[in-house]
Amino acid sequence: MSFVWSLVGFAAMVVFASFFEWTLHRFVLHRPLWFFHHPFNAHALVHHRIFRADHTYHVQNRTDEGKIPMNWWNGPVLILAGCLPFTGLAAFISWWFLLGAFAAACAYYTIYEFLHWCMHKPKHRLLERSGIFFVLNASSAAQVTVRIISRDAVTK
């Protein structure tokens, strides 16, 4: 039964993590919070100024490669924050549920960072020729374009 609860926790976290990522990206990375400006500054003001929706979407200077991934501490913080609701559920269901969720959160964050790296630093990897990567990359580039257009419309 423990294996089943781990699989349920893993699957539930994959779904939850997608919404968690979208929510954080929309409401934390693109809007300054009154008490915590770091995510907005690092993402919207630094990352998107370097990687725009034109030829600069891909790394132009080797020094900019360090601005592709999030800071090292973001991974543990996001994984633990994402696991908080699962901890409460696991207390009533099974701790194996939390273990599955934690494994999924770790895998999700690792895959997210790798895909993000490949988007900004393409090297004709097999992954980069897959349909899912094409869709995700186009979505990421479109998001950058929409942000630039909406920001420019507000400032004009």
Question: Could you explain the architecture of this structure?
Answer:
There is one protein chain. The chain has one domain (2-155). 70% of the residues lie in helices and 0% in strands. It has five helices and no strands. Helix 1 (2-27) crosses helix 4. The N and C termini lie far apart (60 Å).
Summarize the structure.
By secondary structure, the chain is mainly α. It contains 5 helices and no strands.
Structural class: mainly alpha
Count of helical stretches: 5
State the separation between the terminal residues, measured CA to CA. 60 Å
Mean pLDDT metric: 87
Main sheet attributes: strand count, strand direction, barrel closure? none
Principal-axes shape call? globular
Q: How many strand units?
A: 0
Q: Give the SSE order as H and E letters.
A: HHHHH
Domain module tally: 1
Which blocks of ≥5 consecutive residues have pLDDT under 50? 146-156
Strand content: under 5%
Q: Rg, please? A: 18 Å
Helical percent range?
55-70%
Topology:
Elements: H1 2-27, H2 38-50, H3 74-92, H4 95-120, H5 131-155
Identify the notable features of this structure and list them briefly.
5 helices; 0% strand; 156 residues; disordered C terminus; mainly alpha; globular
